[in-house]
From TrEMBL:
Belongs to the TVP38/TMEM64 family. The chain crosses the membrane at residues 12-32, 53-81, 87-105, 138-159. It comes from the Bacteria. InterPro entries: TMEM64 (IPR015414), VTT_dom (IPR032816). It comes from Enterococcus xiangfangensis. Its main location: membrane. This is TVP38/TMEM64 family membrane protein. It is found in: Cell membrane. It is a multi-pass membrane protein. Keywords: Cell membrane, Membrane, Transmembrane, Transmembrane helix. Residues 68-183 form the VTT domain. The keyword Cell membrane applies.
Length: 199
């Protein structure tokens, strides 16, 4: 296969992935799963195989196309599947979505990133890209702790010289902590609010 053919194949695969992601987003949006917990529960149902797969797909979609705050879907995973399996499904979906996001940014470059990242966030972090070592440290901490727009930084990381292998290692090793902290904080906050309303 020639270079031209391989690039054409990659473009077709990328375009197919984007079309499938947009189609899935529109489908889930019309079902109301992005703003209604009951709709999400009904969609997932009680199937031990289809339910988790659909939820993981929803998590991938919300990372690539951020329709809802990631923390909400994290909490939904724990509430629907329990703390252990909810964590696993959240982790799998978010990791896959983060890897796709990086590959999209690396393939389509700055024009795509400017469409998906707000100007405020872009201007805040763009100066860090000049110092590769500094950016990698900031990026690793942002992924480890729920203190920064990590999806936006995943896209911006694609503009640097960081290798996909190193990027993947940071995502795989650092994501569990932020997923756990997000889920725990939201669930604790929800329990506290419920107790206040009841009493």
């Amino acid at each position: 296969m020639s270079v031209v053919q391989s690039r054409r194949l990659l473009n077709i695969i990328s375009l197919t992935g984007i079309i499938l992601t947009i189609s899935a987003t529109i489908y889930f949006y019309h079902l109301g799963v992005f703003n209604d917990m009951n709709s999400l529960r009904q969609l997932i149902g009680h199937s031990p195989i289809a339910g988790p797969l659909i939820f993981i797909l929803i998590q991938i979609v919300q990372v690539v196309i951020p329709i809802i705050p990631g923390g909400i879907s994290l909490a939904a995973g724990v509430l629907i599947f329990g703390p252990y399996w909810g964590f696993i499904y959240n982790y799998v979906g978010i990791v896959i979505g983060s890897l796709i996001l990086f590959l999209m940014g690396r393939h389509y470059g700055k024009p795509l990133i400017m469409h998906l990242v707000s100007d405020k966030v872009y201007q805040k972090y763009i100066h860090c890209l000049d110092d590769q070592s500094r950016f990698e440290k900031i990026f690793a901490w942002a992924i480890f702790l729920p203190i920064a727009p990590d999806d936006a930084l995943c896209l911006m990381a694609s503009l640097t010289n960081i290798s996909f292998k190193k990027y993947s290692a940071i995502i795989l090793l650092a994501k569990p902590a932020s997923i756990f902290l997000y889920s725990w904080a939201l669930l604790q906050g929800g329990s506290l609010l419920s107790n206040l309303l009841i009493h």
